Amino acid sequence: MYDAPNCLRLSTDALTGNWRALAAMSGRAACGAAVKADGYGLGAREVATRLIAAGCRDLFVATWAEAAVVAGLGARVSVLHGVRDDDVSLIGVPDVRPVLNTPAQVARWRGVGAGRACDVMVDTGMNRLGVAPRDVAAGLLDGLTIDTLMSHLACADEPDSAMNARQCAAFAALADRTAAARMSLANSAGIALGADYAFDLTRPGLAVYGGVPVPALATTLRPVVTIEAEVLQRRVVPAGETVGYNATWRAPRDTAVAIVNLGYADGYWRGFSDRGCAFAGDTALPVIGRVSMDLIALDVSKAEVGEGDWVALDPDLPRASAASGMSQYELLTGLGTRFARVWG
Questions:
Q1: For residue 288, what are the β-bridge partners?
Q2: What is the average per-residue pLDDT within 49-59?
């Protein structure tokens, strides 16, 4: 089927459909997309190309090395981690700009930015990256050419958290304190909080890739990625015998078992041991025993699945997250390099 014995089946329609739905929910605000962490594990350049074709004009990455992968495709690229001393030699790429996070980065950019545009992150309560609002009020950013002033919501995936409104109010209070052309606050879950959080630009990440950060988006989004893997062997495990490391699963009866070319080295985590699920068509195939580095075992008693056949792992990210104990973000960004990545 493929040169590799496992693959990621990737849907362009789902990716662009998710982004368009989030753009519509953003109202009058522009809608960008986070493509950091190699496009959340799917391939940053391939993701960016498709989103730009769908109308996205703002991309967000973590580092300058990530920016180099998606620069020049037709969208503005913001480097969320700003500009370090070691990044100075990389600046000057057209349509790539830093998101300044500290007074030291602001000072560094004044020296090396030569009046070029930048973005700025303001900390409104997350206490992660960002300059303080009091520093903004004191003139820290005066004279900078700021495209986008942004902040980041700490609890957007908890819609009832009072912190959301506090952060939104603190950010809105900065509207006249800088010369920024745009303001941006909402991530994926923040878009679902309503129009007050959209400002001029939204920055969805997880939801673009089919993750569901809040129940309000569950019916709006479609899975983008499905793991498919090849069966290496079908065997019958006699009643009472065990499968896999540490003998955690024991056959209650003679059981047909498929051994599949997939494991935690591919990002199919040990948390799926005795809890994950694959499918042959519509037939569910439970993961049995421990997930090992390169292999999993499936109960295929109800399916005609044999050596050389392919199975699909459960693409529903919220369900896979609940089964494995891993966040939806980890499930996506942990997808390994051994997969063939096949876009359709």
A1: 297
A2: 98
Residues 6+ apart with CB under 8 A from 9: 225, 226, 227, 228, 312, 342, 344
Q: How do the residues of the chain divide into helix, strand and coil, expressed in percent and rounded to 5? A: 30, 25, 45
Distance CA 184, CA 194 (A): 14
> Is 36 an active-site residue?
yes
pLDDT of residue 328: 98
Cβ pair 339, 5 in contact under 8 A: no
Q: Which of 218, 167, 156, 166 is nearest to 191 (CA)?
A: 156
Residue 329 bears catalytic tag: no
Confidence of residue 114 (pLDDT cuts 50, 70, 90): confident
- Averaged pLDDT of the chain: 97
Instruction: Give me the count of residues in the chain.
Output: 344
2, 36, 40, 197: the catalytic one is: 36
